[in-house]
Amino acid sequence: MSAATRLRRLDEEREIIVLERSSEVSFANCGLPYHVSGVIADREALSLQSPERLAARFRIDARVRHEAVAIDRAAKTVTVRRLDDGATAEIGYDELVLSPGAAPRRLANAAADAPVRTLRTLDDLDRILTDLDDVPPAGSVVVVGGGFIGIEMADNLHRRGLDVALVQRGTHLLAELDEEMASPIADHLLGLGVDVRLGGAVAAVGVDHVLLDDGGRLPAALVIAAIGVTPEASLAADAGLELGASGGIAVDAFHRTSDPSIFAIGDAAEKREAIDGSGTLATLAGLANRHGRAVADAIAGGATPARPALGTSIVDAAGLTAASVGWSERVARRRGREVRVIHTHPFSHASYYPGAVPLSMKLVVDAHDDRILGAQVVGTDGVDKRIDVIATAMSVGLAASALADLELAYAPQYGSAKDPINMLGYVARNLASGEDRVIQWHELDRELAAGAVLVDVRAEAQLAEGRIPGAQWIPVESLRERHAEFTGRRIVVQCRVGQGAHTAARLLSELGHDVVNLDGGYLTWRDGRRARALAELPLAA
Amino acid sequence: MSAATRLRRLDEEREIIVLERSSEVSFANCGLPYHVSGVIADREALSLQSPERLAARFRIDARVRHEAVAIDRAAKTVTVRRLDDGATAEIGYDELVLSPGAAPRRLANAAADAPVRTLRTLDDLDRILTDLDDVPPAGSVVVVGGGFIGIEMADNLHRRGLDVALVQRGTHLLAELDEEMASPIADHLLGLGVDVRLGGAVAAVGVDHVLLDDGGRLPAALVIAAIGVTPEASLAADAGLELGASGGIAVDAFHRTSDPSIFAIGDAAEKREAIDGSGTLATLAGLANRHGRAVADAIAGGATPARPALGTSIVDAAGLTAASVGWSERVARRRGREVRVIHTHPFSHASYYPGAVPLSMKLVVDAHDDRILGAQVVGTDGVDKRIDVIATAMSVGLAASALADLELAYAPQYGSAKDPINMLGYVARNLASGEDRVIQWHELDRELAAGAVLVDVRAEAQLAEGRIPGAQWIPVESLRERHAEFTGRRIVVQCRVGQGAHTAARLLSELGHDVVNLDGGYLTWRDGRRARALAELPLAA
């Protein structure tokens, strides 16, 4: 619809026909899960456009329940099936825009009569709501898949009062995040009473249960499969259009396929990834909307090339927000990058003003050129702001150290005089210059095994939160007196979040010691340990 | 304190002495107004550091109630007066960092016994609280000055239950904003019962009242003067250091004054402005903190030059948030720039998800090179995020049109698939390409006087909000039938916020008409008209 309405604004004369297989020409797909709980009470709020309005306002001929079933590129025609009566017809085109989206993956091992549903369209939502009418209050449902849709569905089914299990094949929820960043989300859902099962592959789905391959048996009056999507590329492939390695329709920077009269956009089209230019699906609403608009410009003759995709994303996990942009540490390492990793735990705004809440932040930086490769933020208030600022910085190639110099708005209700974003920049700068040296939470056991001493420099009042086994407690203020105890040994310093330990590490370094800071402090170590425990994995990598 | 603690982290050996005239070595000055109302209930929360802690943690010798009264640059000494007993002494220095801040301006025409207070330090706060003990419940106080501090004090005195008048000499509150952006703030305060007086110069202050030069008489058991600050540059000037045109101490990009052994930072030092490099005071906490850290780097030998100041700022005006960065339209025009101006009124997040609230946004763009010169955002939720994204974009010189391509995090709780920031970019791009042509709210009367016809293209249900005199109502959907009525006339199209009118303008332009869109639609015109009414000025510029 972005393409069609934009094209009309650019050209009053052109004939514009929209073919849509479902019964809705434009709907709020990101809002669908929230109608399950009633957070979005009015189903009509999810329906954004109608063929009547498109005709009246934009002179667009939008035909719902019409499926494009074949393309004849030589004749420049599309074969269209009218779903209500099965009749087919040919429609000619000068330019054809493919925007068929992506189809939910199906669970491989479900019985034919198993109550498995996927969620993509308003029609799907209506079916799920009908099914839920037959589920008793507090009945059991299983959501398979711990990504955005899986978490949102688990949240909203739980809000509806149902007994919800969330099964995730991977070691943590939200594959976009690294494990230690994701573990608070699993903990939060567990705390609400959602039965989160990590590393849980589905062995079978029966009429009233889900069997896991570890032998677990989850009762299930309804199963929601939210295990990802595949681009709807078959129409394009059948017409001989090239596909990319991702399985999406291959396009150039102007969204043109291998046939110059055919364009492809949205979840069906392959995008370029911002960091290394590789092909990616990046099935995100923002990109789909932008490319829809851009393809109209391309057709009308005034296009600018598409920028590669950073993949900025965010999800509300039952009140806890998780956001990410670019690469995770895991992806960066898998792709062979040497990285610097930064964890911080700042407050959302000045701690002296009421309502400040903790954030958990992670920055992944290319060790060779200080480029920001990715970021993750988890918390409640202020998560979206910080990920958007980092996404903006990444889109213009700002170095990690340069985050220190961003002039962000400060009053105590909104941030800090040194905003959490600036602090990431300071840490990045200290790491780039070698002023600070750090180890990661999963490297601690190796350091200790190699003979390093772990010094916990927190204030006494902070110790109650928990202690890392083997740590010796010496507050920063006592280090000047006691540092000689460690002469000749490598020292790992550790505080609650990494900041006091930075002061301690500087002091010990100035006093001639070999010292490293445990990045992110006790909190990151705790989150990492918890992630490994949830996934039933050992702490050391 | 940023400078002192950073320097200690860089150098364990150096002797570091801090001289502080007040009794607090480091306090949350941006939080002071909120203790007046009890929003920040605990006074101790405002005190961030103590000499004892600085000594124990950083081996810093911090001396409160010690005033530096003279500098002997040749001898490299500072004369220090101990305020408790008046004793003076000389302290030698290798490097001297001046960070004396800025002093509140005094009301010129107050009687000697008038109860006028200013707010800068915790000591000032304590005096105001003592004074307030003598003000009866619901007694009258007058705040003079409609900037950040004035608005925050008016808000918090009002929350305390007092009868508050807010007197602003200028035509609108918050000089950083343009008048039409600021008028909702005055309206909001008026709605809460604060007696906002715009264009109100103080003629005299007596023991129990304030007289305005329009003859108004405001009862006042206490008067808060918040009419700006002047840099505390006299110590530097007396020592023969150069001052800048702004009155601040002149420094280079490494915060070095005209004496290479003396540095100056904070509100007393002049900064470079980001847009045209001119000298500015930019008395903002973020810059002060950053420069404090940077001066330590400079002294220790590892500095990077200071970036020029954008002046990003934000204020909570009794629940309504106003933020700005860079230049206002007024400043840009005064400095001779030809600008494109964009007003939008988006929702804070997807309107189909509960809790979406309106934002009012303004972007000021250089007409020659599409550079962003400034932005203003007013609303409740999501204001800080949008100003921070624009500030980040400005800091790297991103073109206004490029805002369209930023990949911002979208889920319906946080934003829109086309975020308000992206929409600003689309409008900027349409203006840059000439696809869209606009006039501003204050240009409408001139257009109509010159014979243009004003066409209101809103949906019928939107008309109840108000109508612009002289507008003819034709909804977008009827324009294709009726456009011939305007053949040969210039057309101004207008909707609620500018977006439907963009569709109408494109349509009419495609049909061969001379058409311009009223930027920001009815809402911006209404805010502009209201601003002029509040200031008792005519609507036409």
List the helices and strands and how they pair.
2 copies of one chain form a homodimer.
Chain A: H1 2-10, E1 17-20, H2 32-37, H3 51-58, E2 61-64, E3 66-72, E4 77-82, E5 88-92, E6 96-98, E7 102-104, E8 116-117, H4 122-133, E9 140-144, H5 148-159, E10 163-168, H6 179-192, E11 195-198, E12 202-205, E13 209-212, E14 217-219, E15 222-225, E16 229-231, H7 234-238, E17 262-264, E18 271-272, E19 279-280, H8 285-300, E20 313-317, E21 320-326, H9 329-334, E22 339-344, E23 360-366, E24 372-379, H10 383-395, H11 420-433, E25 438-439, H12 444-449, E26 453-456, E27 472-473, H13 476-482, E28 491-494, H14 499-510, E29 515-518, H15 521-534
Parallel strand pairs in A: 1-2, 6-17, 8-15, 9-10, 9-15, 10-11, 25-29, 26-27, 26-28, 28-29
Antiparallel strand pairs in A: 3-4, 4-5, 7-16, 12-13, 13-14, 18-19, 20-21, 21-24, 22-23, 23-24
Helix pairs in contact in A: 1-8, 6-15
Concise description?
Chain A has 541 residues and is an alpha/beta fold. The first copy, chain A, contains 15 helices and 29 strands. Chain A has a 5-stranded parallel β-sheet with strand order 8-15-9-10-11, covered by helices on one side. The first copy, chain A, has a 5-stranded antiparallel β-sheet with strand order 20-21-24-23-22, sandwiched between helices. Chain A has a 5-stranded parallel β-sheet with strand order 25-29-28-26-27.
Structure description:
- Two copies of one chain form a homodimer.
- Chain A is of the alpha/beta class.
- Chain A is 28% helix and 23% strand.
- Chain A folds into four domains: 2-100 and 230-300, FAD/NAD(P)-binding domain (3-Layer(bba) Sandwich); 106-227, FAD/NAD(P)-binding domain, CATH 3.50.50; 319-433, FAD/NAD(P)-binding domain (3-Layer(bba) Sandwich), CATH 3.50.50.60; 438-534, Rhodanese-like domain (Oxidized Rhodanese, domain 1, 3-Layer(aba) Sandwich).
- The first copy, chain A, has 15 helices and 29 strands.
- In chain A, the strands form nine sheets. Chain A has a five-stranded parallel beta sheet, covered by helices on one side.
- In chain A, a hairpin with a 6-residue loop joins strand 18 (271-272) and strand 19.
- The first copy, chain A, is globular.
- The two termini of chain A are 47 Å apart.
- The interface between A and B is large, with 85 and 85 residues.
- Chains A, B: This is CoA-disulfide reductase.
- Chains A, B: It comes from Agromyces fucosus.
